[in-house]
């Protein structure tokens, strides 16, 4: 095999072979100046290449976010006025900015973060829109619409300008890299069999929710309580914490969730630049954010979150390099694959919207504190429902001969008076002697009223927490209690 000596043509020499002498300058000085010039140009090119790479990477992140804002302002499906959307976005970036920033920047300085750069642009566009509306001399009722149009136009202009900047920088970077490759330097020289191991970049950590979803549930012990106010607060707090973890997106996932529907090329490029998007728990967090957005009536954003979540799920299901296979089909315009995917997006979103609607309805019905009666065995709760005032003839049971019959009469009269004073719906529920019917009525009451009602029912013996031993042995009372007629009773 012949040796290739052509590569040495690219070697940039700095000896005296191409140095022409000057009568007033010694040759050593000329050689040193030539060497310095070569090294300075080489360093300047390296610095410029690194600067262009960093600038392109930063602008690519900002471009997607600015494009998302511009798309929302230009959309006719926005769930609120465009000026309100714009102002709320500015307020969010001012009050709760992310510390995500380009490599080498200081995350504690707002102006060096992605959110700070976007906020600065929004301020600039907002001020320009106000000036435009003021100079236009429009009436007050048309001022908001004029500002909204100016905001959309301003963001569209910056999207176009930033895209042009990225393209120009990419072109310049290609030219500089080609020029750099024309010359071999000492940095390009390597020993023939030298091998340097460069460890791979560590995989991004999974999201916190992934650990919670994989955690084995702790078995719950069964307990019996007679009186329960709502569900235990601790369990409610744990569910709330888990919901917050699911819907809490990282800065990269938040930017990823706002990419447009069917923007497969943008999504693929974003994933290539942000490895922390494809981590365990990411798709679940996006679905949690979709649920939260739908609950807040942000249907468009909810569907975007569902769309992006399914992108990650499809890539995971397709195995090794699943995302590459999936996006290759989508970007190539495979209509059948796109139809299947978008149909899944619509069905998943419809199911999520249905769950949110049901949750909202249940929240309206049971979103307040209530009192309920509960027991493992419903037969443990007895009902003594009076059918009328005490009759003239009262018969006491065995072992109760020493009890004053007038005191018994007073107790029965008191029970009847209490029952008569109960709300009509509670009277009907008590007559059914079904715990569910009684709980339904108690659940509709305020807590204080329900507690007072239970105390009254217990005191009157209508729902006694312990059997009193007093019975109505008259024919009417025995019949009401489901007992046979007493001995010697005439039909």
TrEMBL record:
Localization of this protein: Cytoplasm
All copies of domain Cdc37 C-terminal, residue ranges: 383-489
Main location: cytoplasm
InterPro entries the UniProt entry points to: Cdc37, Cdc37_C, Cdc37_Hsp90-bd, Cdc37_Hsp90-bd_sf, Cdc37_N_dom
Parts of the chain that traverse the membrane: none
GO biological process: protein folding; protein stabilization
Annotated region (Disordered), positions in chain: 167-193, 467-491
Domain of life per record: Eukaryota
SUPFAM superfamilies: Hsp90 co-chaperone CDC37 (SSF101391)
Signal peptide: none
Alphabetic keyword roster: Chaperone, Cytoplasm, Kinase, Transferase
Residue span(s) of domain Cdc37 N-terminal: 2-196
The keyword Ligase is annotated on this UniProt entry: no
GO molecular function, one term: protein-folding chaperone binding
A single Gene Ontology CC term: cytoplasm
Domain (Cdc37 Hsp90 binding) ranges: 195-370
Alphabetized SMART domains for the sequence: CDC37_C, CDC37_M, CDC37_N
Family designation: Belongs to the CDC37 family.
Family matches, as PANTHER family: CDC37-RELATED, HSP90 CO-CHAPERONE CDC37
Name assigned to this protein: Hsp90 chaperone protein kinase-targeting subunit
Taxon lineage: Eukaryota, Fungi, Dikarya, Basidiomycota, Agaricomycotina
